[in-house]
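The records we work with from here on pair a chain with its fold. Here is one such record, which you should read through line by line:
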Amino acid sequence: MWFEWPGTPLVTDLLAVIFLSILGLALLWVASIPDLAARRDHDRTMPRWAVRLTMDWRGTDRQWKVLRGALMLMGALYFLFLVYVHTIIAADFAMALVPGWKDAILPTYHALSGLQSAFASTVVATFLLYKFGGFKGFISVDQFWSAGKIMFALSLLWAYFWMSGFMIYWYGRQPVEQNILRYLMFEAYIVPFVISVVFTFLVPFLVLLWTFARRSVLGPAIVGFSILFGTLFDRIRLYVASFSAGENTESLEALHPEPLSQVLPAVMPGVPDVMMVVGGISGAIFLYMLATKLIPAVSIWEITEGMLYRTRRTFLKRTIMVMGKPE
């Protein structure tokens, strides 16, 4: 992908991830400005650096227009750059290490799986805040109901993109294509593959298929935990297999490898591997808890705005919710 430029994949991928992280933090900061300003006006002990983050916010019409425009622009840039980062990560650290693995659908599948797991992380965090964080006054079943619809659609898209990439290799039937399928799915890494299919697609599909599960708090939360568990094993399947093939000198030669001529054995995890996985998950939880100490876990101004656009009315002896549009 990088025309054999020395050191390019590592440098480019690292810069892309850093830029995406900065863009995400900037998006989080812009969305938190009104809530930080509200704290500034009622808390005189607020640190000076936090006061500077409010950018002298006064809630004027012009400031609201600029805020919404910035959120739309930065959100679009973040989404586009997210797909780009997933593309180069999947190409450089997965396909490039397995001789003969050339899959144009994998980057799209990888990005879609990333969106699915990111949305599941949000739902799980929201559930924990609702259940144990004292946010029941701000979070209701409506958020989980809406999230259930999106996760249901993302699970179907996961199956669609996986099947699109699988069909090309299945019907191609070339020796290298058969070896790649056997290596990544049906022989060496069949256990993580089956786990990823069950918990990333089957469980969300079978649970969210029912309306009563989507319209509950527990249903989408269970699906969120399931997706995260399945995505973990899917990434183990992709990257452990890729790096194991890359370390095999008989299968990988210089920068132009020969096709995968044999199915390599699976690499089983050891104690250090398990500890690194647990440490990575713990690190993510720590960063989230640290962020909640500085920025409100729930956007108060967005919830308040949403409440202003809804009311309850009687229709045919039933009480229904009427939603309005801001524009």
Notes: The chain has one domain: 8-297. The chain has eleven helices and two strands. The mean pLDDT is 86. The first helix runs from residue 8 to 42.
